[in-house]
Amino acid sequence: MINRSCRFVLLLTLLLGMLSAIGVARAHEHYEVVVNANVTARSLPSNSLRAIFGMRQQTWPDGTAIKVFVLADDAPLHSSFCKEKLSAFPYQLRQAWDRMVFSGTGQAPTRVSSSEEMFDKVASTPGAIGYLEKSKISERINVLQIK
Fold first, then answer.
1. 34: closest CA among 106, 127, 147?
2. How many CB atoms lie within 10 A of CB 74?
3. Does the global pTM surpass 0.70?
4. Domain 31-146: which CATH class?
5. In this structure, are residues 38 and 126 in contact, taking their beta carbons and an 8 Å threshold?
């Protein structure tokens, strides 16, 4: 039979686990992957999203060049996006981008300094992709569903 202190610890552990699961679910809800209005894709598999932000996929299915925009490595939104959508830490992406740049095999995405600049760049650049807080999204850009 389990004594009271063990039951309390077990209950507390379960409650904390449930709270962290709720927090993770809410973290997914505060931003979206966004694309320029001319991008015809409306959904994308998660492995394609990782290839795009890993700078390995450079064109959309219709042949349009992809232009990737990201926030600074230490921006909270960038960190959430990397961990939740790309299953990577920001420093891991930075290392991969640096390796491509220094070896001459590719280039890093364009870094923007704010969500406002992210919106402006994605809205005005054909083939652009980025991520934004839901509150910053308007009809000038499209939300990309990730499967």
1. 127
2. 8
3. yes
4. alpha beta
5. yes
